[in-house]
Specification:
CATH architecture of the largest domain: 3-Layer(aba) Sandwich
Oligomer: single chain
Low-confidence stretches: none
Strand content: 15-25%
Largest sheet: 6 strands, parallel
Shape: globular
Radius of gyration: 19 Å
GO cellular component, one term: cytosol
Binding site for NADP(+): 168-170, 234
Mean pLDDT: 98
Keywords: Amino-acid biosynthesis, Histidine biosynthesis, Hydrolase, Methionine biosynthesis, Multifunctional enzyme, NADP, One-carbon metabolism, Oxidoreductase, Purine biosynthesis
Bound molecules: guanine
GO molecular function: methenyltetrahydrofolate cyclohydrolase activity; methylenetetrahydrofolate dehydrogenase (NADP+) activity
EC number: 1.5.1.5, 3.5.4.9
Helix content: 40-55%
CATH superfamily of the largest domain: NAD(P)-binding Rossmann-like Domain
CATH class of the largest domain: Alpha Beta
Strand order of the largest sheet: 1-11-8-7-5-6
Number of strands: 11
Length: 293
């Protein structure tokens, strides 16, 4: 049976470090890290994520600000808010929750966030730094940064000689994950919905990272025996066993059968998810430290 990689324990350790750093920054130089989270519209799942981000920011001792804008917010209004947050010295990190309602274009909004406050690592400046191997001076997307910490727990920091396969090519996850694995010396394949023989590609992986948004798509036959399987999926599915109309969160990996083949595996929930929030806090405290020099 595979080693279960506990993301809650790893995230707690990051949160403790961040909380200590925030307290030291405030008592030492009077800088209280500030995180602004912006959400547009009424999607209940997005509201739940955003609430947990704001709550964790408070717990870490940050100045935590949430802007909940109505569904009918215009592009201009949203970009005006971002520009005010860019200019606000009490705010060190800005996160605009995605996806935005259909009438809004996310790319201009994301690119209008000041790179030094872009705690999602989505601005072209931060994405470009990661792509060119500068892991130190920018901000790195939270979910891949958190997933890498979990991978490092099994393989150490140097992934030389290991084949890594990332399924999914989003700007938020797949691309930065591939860049991080490459910077750690892994041999990286990016697979996606148009790839031929996805199971065959995945069976080559010593490290298999799934971010496809399809429940239980990765089956045991896709997993090389002994591989590390990292499940980034957060899919809400019906859970009749919990009662009529109830739902639960499940991953992109068919957990039980893959755990029987893998060497190590992240569960959903309790794997990569808690790391995303922890790394958001870490990025915010780093951004706050940099304002001090
Ligand atoms: N929606 C789902 N995950 C994320 C995330 O990490 N950042 C943002 N901005 N939106 C998301």
């Amino acid at each position: 049976m595979a080693t279960i990689i506990d993301g809650k324990v790893a995230a707690q350790s990051v949160i403790e470090t961040v909380t200590r750093a925030a307290a030291a920054l405030e008592s030492g130089v009077g800088v209280k890290p500030g995180l602004a989270v912006v959400i547009v519209g009424n999607d209940p799942a997005s509201h739940a994520y955003v609430n947990s981000k704001s709550k964790m920011a408070k717990q870490c001792g940050f100045n935590s600000v949430q802007h909940s804008l109505p569904e009918e917010t215009t592009q201009e209004e949203l970009e005006k808010l971002v520009s005010e947050l860019n200019a606000d010295p009490a705010i060190h990190g800005i996160l605009v929750q995605l996806p935005l309602p259909k009438h809004l274009k996310s790319e201009p909004v994301i690119q209008s966030i000041a790179p030094e406050k872009d705690v999602d690592g989505l601005n072209v400046v931060n994405a470009g730094k990661l792509a060119t191997g500068d892991l130190a001076s920018g901000l790195i997307s939270c979910t891949p940064a958190g997933a890498l910490i979990l991978i490092n727990k099994i393989h150490g920091a140097d992934l030389s000689g290991l084949n890594a396969v990332v399924i999914g090519r989003s700007n938020l996850f797949g691309k930065p994950m591939a860049m991080l694995l490459l910077s750690s010396n892994a041999t990286v394949t990016m697979a996606h919905s148009r790839s031929k023989d996805l199971p065959g590609i995945c069976r080559q992986a010593d490290i298999l990272v799934a971010a496809v948004g399809r429940p239980h798509m990765v089956r045991a036959g896709w997993v090389k025996p002994g591989a590390t399987v990292v499940d980034v999926g957060i899919n809400r599915v019906p859970a009749p066993e919990k009662g009529e109309g109830k739902t639960k969160i499940t991953g992109d990996v068919a957990y039980e059968e893959c755990a029987a083949v893998a060497g190590a595996i992240t569960p959903v929930p309790g794997g990569v998810g808690p790391m995303t929030i922890a790394m958001l806090m870490a990025n915010t405290v780093v951004a706050a430290c940099r304002t001090f020099g």
